[in-house]
Amino acid sequence: MTGQSPHRKPSRQGVLAAAAKVAEIVPETPLLPLEIAGRTVWCKAECLQPIGAFKLRGAWHRLTDIDADDWGAGVVAFSSGNHAQGVAWAARRLGIEATIVMPSDAPAKKLAATRALGASVVLYDRMTGSREEIAGALAAERGAVLVPSFDDPWVIEGQGSVGIEIAAQMEALTGAAPDRIVIPCGGGGLSAGIALACPEADIRIAEPEGWDDMARSLEAGEIVPVAPNPPFTSCDALQTLRVSPLTFGPLAAAGAKGVAVTEAEIAEAMRVAFGQLRLVVEPGGAVALAAVLAGKVPIAEHTVVVLSGGNVDPAAFARVLEGTR
User: Fold this and answer.
1) Among positive and negative, which fits the CA dihedral 135, 250, 174, 266?
2) Cα three-residue angle 103-63-211, rounded to 5 degrees
3) Residues 6+ apart with CB under 8 A from 272
4) What's the N-to-C CA distance of the chain in angstroms?
């Protein structure tokens, strides 16, 4: 494997290196203006990535730093779907075998897409099994490289390439840097990476109600897990029970703050994104926009909202548009 320690901390230098890598394989996703209450908010459309989410960034940065001599043993990851597709996409481009541990209740669209990208899928029960333990055992058995969904310095740096793009695009479009960036948060890889990429911006994270452990952790000054028996959320991509010191650290250092949004607010954000931007955004990808639309995060002079993914089952999306969910 690469000589760099997997226990190192993510850095802005690493984010810049990841951004250069990502720029060589996919074009920038657009930054689109959206009028809210008479003010312009800029929406970073990561839902338009080749896999429908930002996750290929971290996966590409991680896999391309594995020594080619170690590719034969493959990689193992765990994910409800978007990270799964990111790892599968990167592995296929590099000719590496990928095995993904996924919950049995993951959206059918995400399961099918992961398999279509050539990855092997191992299912587990989200409520009774530990995806980390299952994936760790598989990786140890095969001598494969484990690629966590957020608790990894390469993954965090790769996701932070979103912030490098945002800064350059805002400068080109408005002549100014973003002063507030609102970001969906599950494990915190994306938001921590963007905090490293854009140290001058006010970082705000958004999570579904009952799953707002990063917000509560930031408020408490220490990591606080999700409470027992958390409520239902349509945000399958954001169901992380405990965040990592690797993601909590950069956000705490940046003075980030968080808010929680309701299912109704998420659905409204999905409808607005579709109706005004013509974008399909999944529930987890819409929480940041939901927070701004609901007035839970004030709009600053140069506010950017990240729309992090668009992998939603068509029937579920139709119910949201019809207002029946």
Assistant:
1) positive
2) 35
3) 34, 289, 293
4) 47
Contact at 8 Å (CB) between 158 and 193? yes
Residue 284 and residue 184 in contact, taking contact as beta carbons nearer than 8 Å: yes
Q: Has residue 133 got a pLDDT over 70?
A: yes
User: Mind listing the pLDDT tens digit for each residue in 156-213?
Assistant: 999 999 999 999 999 999 999 999 999 999 999 999 999 999 999 999 999 999 999 9
Supply 303's token pair.
Answer: 């506010």
3-state secondary structure of 120: strand
To the nearest 10 degrees (0 to 180), the angle between helices 12-23 and 56-63 is: 100
Identify the helix (H) or strand (E) that includes residue 116.
helix 108-116
- Contact residues for 104 (Cβ-Cβ < 8 A; gap 6+): 123, 124, 125, 126
Strand partners for 309:
53
User: Do residues 54 and 48 make contact, with C-beta atoms less than 8 angstroms apart?
Assistant: no
Flag whether pLDDT at 6 surpasses 70: no
pLDDT on residue 108: 87
DSSP string, 11-74: -HHHHHHHHHHHHTTSPPPPEEEEEETTEEEEEEEGGGSTTSBTTHHHHHHHHTTS-GGGGGG-
Confidence of residue 311 (pLDDT cuts 50, 70, 90): very high
In terms of Cα–Cα distance, which of 257, 283, 256 is closest to 269?
283
Give the DSSP per-residue string, 126-168: TTT--HHHHHHHHHHHHTPEEE-SSSSHHHHHHHHHHHHHHHH
Cα separation, 99 vs 113, whole angstroms: 14
The stretch 236-260 carries a mean pLDDT of: 96
10 Å Cβ neighbour count for 300? 17
Q: How far apart are CA 240 and CA 236, in angstroms?
A: 9
